[in-house]
Amino acid sequence: MKTNKKIKRLAEPGIGIYLFFLALFAAASLFFRQYYLAAAEGVIFAALLVYALVVRQRKEKQLSAYIESITYDTESAKNSTLIHFPLPIAVFRMNDSSIVWGNDMFFGLFGERRARMDLRVVDLLPEFTGKWLLDGQRLYPGLVELQGRKYQLHGNLIRSERPGEDAAFMGITYWVDVTEYDEIRLRFQNTRPVPGVIILDNFDEMSRNQPERVRNEIRDAVEDKLHHWCASYNAILRRYDRDRYLVLIEKQDLEKMKRDKFAIIGQVHQVESPTGINASLSIGMGEDAPTLAEGLQFADMAVELALTRGGDQAVIKNRLSFEFYGGRGLEVERRTKVKSRVMANTLTELVRDSSRVLVMGHRYADLDALGAAVGVCCLARKCGTKANIVINREHNAVKTLIERLLPEPEYRDAFMSTQEAMVAADGRTLLVVVDTNSPAQVEDPDLLDACNRVAVIDHHRVSASYIHNAALGFIEPYASSACELMTEILQEVTEQTDILRCEAEALLSGIVLDTKSFSIRTGERTFDAAAYLRRSGADTTEVKKLFQTDMEHTVAMYKIMQEAEQYRNIAIAAPSAPQSRVVAAKAADELLNISGVDASVVISPDGKGGAFASARSIGEINVQILMEKLGGGGNRSAAAVQMEDTTLEDAVQKVREAIDDYLS
């Protein structure tokens, strides 16, 4: 109050207004010839003018003194505030991080007893950088740990302009101790509950034709191992169905499970049925969900994905992606005729309710993709719906088969480019995707996005980025090929006379391709499908001709094999010149004939700044897991990956690292 009154008194107006009127009266007196009165008023005016000047000069001195006092008090308060500020503060130059000023608390963080202006911030904290201030941020990314304490840095930029010097930027940082807060945050995150679902996925196979006593013994043996495993991680386990369990665990213990790579997957294999079948588990965990209910939905999605990938593995679903553990065991035949019949009837109804059917495989289509597409066209013809195959006529591995199909009246106008398909598609178009379940691998991802009615028929393990919201998903990793699945569908809804000879040969060629002439991934259902196609008119000699290559490709294949070297028990070939994908795949197949080789990988530049790899396996190695580590996919015995913007040397190094990680 006292300060306000003083300022008000200093700011009061002067006597200028009075002088003005006095001069006006003196002029009026002269005008009316009152000379004595005018002289008296002039004397008074002069005296008042002198007085006003003296008073004004005195007030200016008082005001200047007061302003100086206020400035001094402000500077003193500011300096005292900076020195005694309850947080560590440091001012440094942005060009070299040299310290301009810092309070005692700041230097005390680094064990310095006094202020030192000969240091740089990076001398005290090597990982420090001021780039975040230049980027306009007010908060340092991450926390700084010093002597067991954690600090959050706040800061801002200031512009320093000294006379005779160019303007420079300086940074001011405030170091806030957030140790207790961060510990609470970490404790909250680490103790978040994570729900999971565990399924004894081959319980039906293990207990088939067994008495109830044996079934209970099998289940009890598995439960015993599950209880011991859960107890070691402080998890809660409850069975809610004959072969399904609910598990609840804290996030910090889930991280331990990840580090142990879900050892229970291998431990449960010790439980064996009287018929010699080992138990296997499919595990789904829902991580980082905002609520328990949503976490359980994540767990259900994860365990379903584990089952569609062949079981015997753990899948963790979070808000952004999936993580996979296990899955190295051999797939066991689980699909039945009933499922094939249901899928056949569902697909038939979808085809009949559609205005048009478009069939699309993966990029650089092979015999399995085109053979399955031909099977869909056969079904659509049976239903009276027009069908077209969407394929790149230039970049594919099936030119011979296309040339064999084109003379047939049914296939004269069947092939369509992706641009033509986009124009032809309407709201009632059904898009059938065959031999892949990954949106990134289809012939045209834009066409996939444009069609709202999609069916998927595939035999590869489901990838993390699989096609969602499909009206029908017939994905069976136990099948040898997509052609085998399509043949089973045709068996349910068509007669043998409905299948053209060229269609039967196309389907059989896909089975022969993916089974390597019935040597791998071949089950009872595979031979049933092949026998049905043979009865439908397929000529095995004509199928064999589809696999013939010219002399140039044959020589190129053997040149690739000459450059192969054995890395551990895997043959790796990396030709420096770009190779055809067909030749690379055949070279990988041939490398499996070498004694001591369980798997093979052929890596080749693609001529566009990247590289691709084709992997094959004949032993215990699951090449699908190898290729998934690099962003690709496939199945246990055949997989591939496309690596963009990667040199051949980098691609080889990545493959070696993936092999080391897998075999470790």
Fold and architecture overview:
- This protein is an alpha/beta fold.
- The chain is built from 25 helices and 23 strands.
- The strands form four sheets. Strands 7-8-6-9-10-11 form a six-stranded mixed β-sheet. Strands 14-13-12-15-16-17 form a six-stranded parallel β-sheet. A six-stranded mixed β-sheet has the order 18-19-20-21-23-22, with helices on both faces.
- Helix 14 packs antiparallel against helix 19.
Name its key features.
six-stranded mixed sheet; six-stranded parallel sheet; 19% strand; 25 helices; disordered N terminus; alpha/beta; 664 residues
In short:
The chain has 664 residues and is an alpha/beta fold.
Unreliable parts: 1-5, 7-13
Strand content: 15-25%
In which order are the strands of the major sheet placed? 7-8-6-9-10-11
Number of strands: 23
Number of helices: 25
**Average pLDDT:** 87
Could you give a short account of the major beta sheet? 6 strands, mixed
Helix proportion of residues, in percent?
A: 40-55%
Measured between the Cα atoms of the first and last residue, the distance is 79 Å
From the helix content, strand content and strand pairing, which structural class follows? alpha/beta
- Taken from the alpha-carbon principal axes, the silhouette is elongated
Rg computed from alpha carbons, rounded to a whole number of angstroms: 41 Å
